[in-house]
What we know:
The complex is a heterodimer. By secondary structure, chain A is mostly helical. Chain A has one domain (31-105). Chain A has helices spanning 31-36, 38-42, 48-60, 64-80, 88-105.
Amino acid sequence: MSRSPAPRPDPLPGAAGPDAPDVPVAAPTSCETAVRRLWDYLDGGLAAPSHREVEAHLATCAACPPHFAFAARTLDALAAGRPAAPSPDEGAALRERVQAALTSAT
Amino acid sequence: MRDDADRGSGHATAAFERLTLPFLGDVARFARSLTRDPTRADDLVQETYLQALRGWHTFNADADPRRWLFTVCRHTFLRTERREARYTEAPDDDPELESLATAVAHAAAERSGAADAVERLDLGPAIAEALAALPPHYRVAVVLVDVEGQAYDEAAEVLGLAVGTVRSRLFRGRRLLQDLLYAHAQDAGFRGARPPVTAPRTAGPAAQRPSPTRAAAAAPPTSAKPSP
C-alpha cells in the first residue's frame, strides 16, 4: 500500500507507522482522540469541552475533516431518505386490510 | 391496566383499534424504512397489528401506543428476518472504537480511490440499497435514529436495549453502511477514477459543526447528550 502523498500530522492507528509516543496532557487533541469522538460529535452528544476540542482539531488538521465530512454526508442522506407515509389512497387500503385481518382474528 | 371487561372480545378490538389505528401511517412508514419494499412493508404492518392485538392485554394504558407499536413492529420484522435466514447476531462493540474504525476505513477508501468514487455517487439511491443490505440488527438501530430521527432513549425503548448498547450498535451500523457505499461505488465502475491531484478537499460546514437538526433529533439534552 502506498503512503499518502503528504505526511499526516498524526497517523491514525491501524495505518502504517510506529506507535506514537505518549503525548503530554496539555497537547492539542490528537487525530485518534478526535476520530474516536466522530459520531458523538456529529450527533451533538459530546459535553461542551470535548466538542470544542474536536472543533479546534478539525480547524487545524488536514487529515480528519474529510472523514467527518463524509460521515456528516452519510447522516444527511439517511435523514433525507425517510420514506413517505402512505398516500391517502394507500393509507385507506392498508387500513381496510388491517381492519379486516383484525376482525377475522377475533 | 385497563378494565378486564375491556379485553377479550369485540369491545376489546374496538378499543384496540381506537388507540392504535391513528398510528397506522407511522407504523407503515417505519415498516417501509425497515423492509425497503412496499409489499413486504404492508405484510409487516398487518402482522404487527395482529401481534399487537394478541399482546393487547399486556399493554400498559400509561405507555405510548406509537412506541409500543414500533416495538411490536421491530420484533415482528426481526422474527421474519430470522425465519428467512438473514439474521446475524450482533456483538456489542465499543462505540468509540467504531468511530475510530469509521475514520480508518475512510482513510483507506481515500487511498484506494473509493472515497472519491463515493463523492460522485447520487447518495440517495446508494444509501437505500446499502440500508437494505445492512444486517437487520444494525438496520433497525440506524432506521430508528438516523432515518426516523428518534432520540437514543426512545430508540432504546423500542429496541429493548440499554442506551449505551444502542449507541454502539448504531455506530457500527453506520460504519458498515459506509463500507457498503464504498463497495457500491466501486461496483458502479468508478474504480479507476483518478483522485484530484491539486486542490485538497476541504470539509464542508457540516464537518466543522454538527447540524443543529441532527443534534436535536438524535440527542436532545434529556437523553443521549451529557449535561453541559
